């Protein structure tokens, strides 16, 4: 369960729900109480009218006793035209008038007042004044019935307050529980993420069973962790491979120099220097490759220019000689918008690899394929098994067969080549072929002939 503290989402939602529920309850309670109050005062008025109905015929008949019989405990007082009490129920016998008409006698036939602390009566009362028109003037019948507060009566008030408190508490507790239940998995994910930060990337956050947003969140977090772990592992592997590849030539050079120094007179120093220079060349090549990769990883700006692919490749092939036969199958006017130096770097690596592995011949094809320009480099060597066709693009990957053919390679050529292809929005893959390896580069064409 998520921790309960005042600023937590759960606490805030609970308080907000409680406040809204309380406001709604107060609103409805007020309406209900006012309604009940109106009903009660209507029935009090009916009760007062019944008292008047009872007394009026007796007044009219002139048979008014000095003590009136009472009904339901309601007090009645009859005042003659001079304002003197001529008859009253027993509570008001001998008491002064509880209410009189205002001066000027212009009050309505029936009027009403709320009076408290009336002599002879307990509590607050609603006193209804009825005018009775007699030959000698206007008589007054005061009927006092129990006073009705605006909320009706206390029982209803207590009931309404109790119900409101109960509803508000139930809503707040219900929402608090629901939010707690909803946030439980989020808290579990947070706790696990905290652990992962402290211990390692191999752990995953718990995925709740419900098909909801929190499950999607957990799945996304786990997918991100998968990628992070993969990237971290790749970086770790890369660093360890790079250090290993840098250390080998350094160790070899150091051994050569140490041996020379141990037997300086027997050492062929020019030969040692040449061997050390070879080592330095290798170190330089590795460092240059690493730098190239780092630049491509960082998304370096390309110096693009529209280039006829066949022309550029032909010029590159003419620059050097190969130990095997080169077959060219070029379509003309296949133009790509490319950074020439980098595409030549890609091509050189494919040609170097092909020359290293070919038996007799390398075939180079340039053609258009819809919106794409295609460059294929095929050799007639042993080829690359399907299961290695992706791994050879991983950094520092060298297959067993080529280690024997050329100990000098570092396994960075193809990863760089693929990065160059991708930087040009293209692809570099190894496709099926009848014999040998078939590298296929696809780049978007920039000529409008397709
Ligand atoms: N034409 C090919 N035929 C068979 N195997 C190949 C061919 N081209 C590449 N490979 C395999 O792929 C591996 C990776 O090639 P890549 O060009 O990345 O590295 P390299 O040539 O060994 O070293 P570098 O290019 O960094 O000097 C090679 O070591 C080799 O095993
Ligand atoms: Mg290579």
UniProtKB/TrEMBL annotation:
SUPFAM superfamilies on file: ATPase domain of HSP90 chaperone/DNA topoisomerase II/histidine kinase (SSF55874), Homodimeric domain of signal transducing histidine kinase (SSF47384)
Catalytic reaction(s) noted: ATP + protein L-histidine = ADP + protein N-phospho-L-histidine
Domain HAMP positions: 180-233
Keyword entries, A-Z: Kinase, Membrane, Phosphoprotein, Transferase, Transmembrane, Transmembrane helix, Two-component regulatory system
CDD domains: HisKA
InterPro entries: HAMP_dom, HATPase_C_sf, HATPase_dom, His_kinase_dom, HisK_dim/P_dom, HisK_dim/P_sf, Sig_transdc_His_kin-like_C, TCS_sensor_his_kinase
Transmembrane domains' residue ranges: 15-37, 156-175
Claim: Acetylation is one of the keywords in the record: no
Chief location category: membrane
Ranges for domain Histidine kinase: 241-447
GO molecular function: kinase activity
Enzyme class label: transferase
PROSITE patterns membership: HAMP (PS50885), HIS_KIN (PS50109)
Lineage: superkingdom: Bacteria
Pfam families for this protein: HAMP, HATPase_c, HisKA
Entry EC no(s): 2.7.13.3
Subcellular location(s) of the protein: Cell membrane
Protein name: histidine kinase
Lineage: Bacteria, Bacillati, Actinomycetota, Actinomycetes, Streptosporangiales
